[in-house]
Specification:
The protein has about 850 residues and is α/β, with parallel strands linked by helices. It is built from 34 helices and 32 strands. Strands 13-23-22-15-16-17-18-14 form an 8-stranded mixed beta sheet. The protein has an 8-stranded parallel β-barrel with strand order 25-26-27-28-29-30-31-32, surrounded by 6 helices. A 5-stranded antiparallel beta sheet has the order 2-3-7-5-6. The chain binds phosphoenolpyruvate and magnesium ion (MG). Magnesium ion binds next to α30.
Amino acid sequence: MQQDDSHITLITPTAPMHTHTHGGRAKCLQRLVRLDLPVPRTVALSFEAVHRIAAGELPDMARFLAPFGAAPLLCVRPSSEDPDWGGPGAVLNIGINDTRFVELAERIGKEAASHIYLRFVQAYAIHVARLDPDVFEDVSPDPVLGLSQALKAYESEAEEEFPQDPGKQLTEVLRSMARAWEGTTARLLRQAKGAPADAGLGLVVQELALGLGQGECGSGVMQLVNGQTGARQIIGRYLSQSQGRDALSSGADAIYLTRDPRGPSLEDLAPDAFAEIRAYAELMRARLREEMQAEFTIENGKVWILDGLRVPRNGRAAVAIAVGLAEDDIISRDEALMRVEPRALNELLHRQVDPNAPRDVLARGIAASPGAATGRVVFSAAEAQAGHSRGEACILVRRETSPEDIRGMHAAVAVLTERGGMTSHAAVIGRGIGLPCVVGASEIHFQTRRKQLTMPDGRVVKAGDVITVDGTGGLVLAGETPLLEVARDDAFQTLMSWADDVRDIAVRANADTPADAEVARKFDARGIGLCRTEHMFFDTERLTVMREMIFADGSTDRAAVLERLLPMQRADLADLFRIMQGLPVCIRLFDPPLHEFLPTDRAGHLQLAEALDLPLSDVTRRVEALSEYNPMLGMRGVRLGITVPEIYDMQARAIFEATLEASREGAPVVPEIMIPLVSAKREVELVKTRVDAVAAAVRNETGRDFTYRLGVMVETPRACLRAGEFAPLVSFLSFGTNDLTQMTYGLSRDDAGRFMSEYVKQGVYPEDPFHMLDVDGVGELLKIGAERGRAANPDISLSICGEHGGNPESIAFCRDAGFTYVSCSPFRVPVARLAAAQLTV
Ligand code: PEP
Ligand code: MG
């Protein structure tokens, strides 16, 4: 069956042509034609035309070939809607046959003509006749000899003569490319890159500019920017007597474009052609409003532009390019903001594995905290600290981390754990302090006693061996791997300031320590949205006092120990207030179960018994008494505050005294106090009464006044449903989506890592809900909580402080729901600022 040719169009400045009907390459070529660039004649086949070809409906070849004049040589290239979706490789030199070979040999020489013919025979054999590339294994590198050998090899393998009819050659090439696109593997591959199931393929058929023959002939690519750094410089390669993108794959034979001490250049060899190509590249940048790579051919001195491709770039270059185009008034600032994928900023904020460097993957896990680092493997926090003090880079390897590992985490350059998911201890702390982290690497056999790791392929990594942890890609790599440095350069700062100009939802940071707060300030967070106060007690010295408090007999003893904790807490908070310079600081009252502060093994119990001067059996008994079957749903958060109220009293006092201290030096501080894990109104009433009482006492004692805001952390499903009851008692609600996700799904945030990848692989969950907010379920609870809270107290402010707060998709949700701010780990603040800005553009 023959198709009409309404879907086959000669590319002219006015031909109807769109990216969604003909693909990005066809559309770009039309733009180049409009700019009057010397583009060889090109015909575009729409998605529809290609689809019909795959179904066996072929175009009328005589009419198809008419625009190309007599005896053309052609090339066919794919044109999908998004170039990242891939497509079949280009096929060059279609139309060559025995007769044309003779003519061509007269014109450009036998060797060059043989090259052209040979290349086509091989491409046709492999892509169309689907012969094994090995059949050409013994073909001579000499093109004249090689051609006759290749033709013979084709004939004997394909059991037919090499097709001589250019129409048939073209038809078969088009058909094979069309079918390749519709194959299952190709479809799955592109769907993995985000292509819709029915993504179409266009094709462009272009008359060949010969890069082979007499005079200066060759091909190459030129771009005006470095795709790694974003620096403006002419980059590319040129290879005499070559076609297509040969210059990029030929290694040492290709030459530089600009004058270069390392060797000859196109600028020396053909200065006029060089200047002409450069001018075209500049024109493309200005008029296509993008950094483009020009693919060119020089044919006996004449320049042809075959194609323009968006320059491939990493995150750092993406920022520099967008800012550069806006500063040159080629695009607007808003457009520059839209051109950078927020997550790509991670590449600027943390060291990254160089994507172009060779890597040896040992195992995979969950990419829990971005960045990469190389170091020696250690199996305990103490060894990490010891290594750190010797100036050694250490990778802390644990089954899972616990509060006791915090100092080791600070001392390590990266963390690797067997267990855990996106909101497990290691992940949350890792993101908080900007430490690369891979968790849930359960395919590795962790033999922590023997101090070794057995990788899935049987390789063994022992303590002291060097590995690289890639927390961005979730990979464990053997040995040292080249890393790209952090690049918070001028372009980054500029883009961030443009983002802040348009953003209409604030971004705060989750910061627990003065060090976190410094990072938060550096990234221009608009305050602290969550200070997990218990994190202030993981320091070894304080941990002992904390343990004394837990072991205290009765409230008198406990009060005495709390007296000692008070100044520590007060000093930390005063520091935070000072660093944040009047920006809001939201302090969460103590949350975790007490046993988290107790050692888990016998050696630890013994140490504690010595430190507290207690019999070992007392310590063991006490630890057992506090242990819970399900600590995440046990005595934590406000439940602890209600049953052991002295702890919250101490914290409230520390907050108010620190407020007064910090207010002495600058503007009055208005602290925000947040009650965690609320599920009933009465909990809020009880805590509010005590906090108010402490405030009154401090006012009385000091004779000074201050204000504060009380809020509820909404992180149980019941708190969402009953928000209307307690909203009138408080000034803000902050959604803790880590616990809320855990409780909505009934899914342990610490154990889910074991099966999460299987669940996502089998499509049970579209994404890890601890990573990507579950808009349908958890999101509905969020909306209910927000609506009921707001209805009962119209002045209430709403926010999110779970890990989802730094996710671009969740930020859109929170903005739509009318939240005042999102709060996330300090290192994610820039990502969130950009994502928030994009929502307003
Ligand atoms: C939460 O549950 O979302 C939260 C922020 O608190 P945490 O992670 O400390 O439980
Ligand atoms: Mg929580």
